[in-house]
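Hello again,

I reread your note about wanting to compare the complex against the isolated chains. To keep things tidy I'm splitting this into two emails, and this first one only covers the full assembly. Below are the input lines as submitted, including protein chains and any nucleic acid or small-molecule components. They are followed by the predicted structure of everything together. The single-chain runs will come separately.
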Amino acid sequence: MTSVQTLPITSEYDIITARQAARELARQIGFNTVDQVRIATAVSELTRNVVLYAGSGKVDIEAVAEEERQGIVITVSDRGPGIADIELALRDGYSTSNGLGAGLSGAKRLMDTFDIESRAGRGTTIRIGKWKHWK
Amino acid sequence: MNNRVPILKVDNFWLVTIEETLHDQSVIEFKEDLLHNITRDAGAGLVIDISALEVVDSFVTRVLMEISRLAGLLGLPFVLTGINPAVAITLTEMGLDLQGMATALNLQKGLDMLKGRARGEPK
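Full-complex prediction:
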């Protein structure tokens, strides 16, 4: 089960499309409702950052299966200005856009894995993942 | 796809039910429409029901906080209703608390709360 769904992010409408697609895939994988909402919310935060800071980018949504576990991996990437200080950007309450400063740190808390790669002037790629928990 | 959120006034109470997923611009238009209404004619209270929202992210939370703050400045009692359990869990985990906002299970309970307050009953 490896199919990647790639969606462009060019406007705020795409935030909704992306989070609904992620939620739908999470549902198909068998995540419970709370996890579906966690995943959709994390996607909402990360794709909004793309619209806000980079203008455009893309999101890849992928179901992953290992021997004994299933999960979802979502990669949000842009070629925007990059994040100058990742540690600072991940701090609660820190925002350069007059927001609540809960987007990045919140998305990180909602997921099991969170990897961020960013270079000034080159862009940002954030990969988040969640595993379906054992019943 | 420009959906305006209906803002109703019934028995001097402002009632808003957000029926569907809103994109950011619609959220901002809703906030402005609402603020325009309540600053012209405060009424006895405001209930916003969000039970139809499947996702409440930090952007929507911020707008709700702004509405709450302005209602507070106007002395307009405000109750937020219909936060579904998955949304509540998600907001808490993200570290977003709805800072002292009054909440109720559904629109009816929110309205009852405001009516009780308008009659001077304790909460």
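For quick reference: Helices of chain B lie at 24-40, 58-73, 85-93, 107-118.

B.
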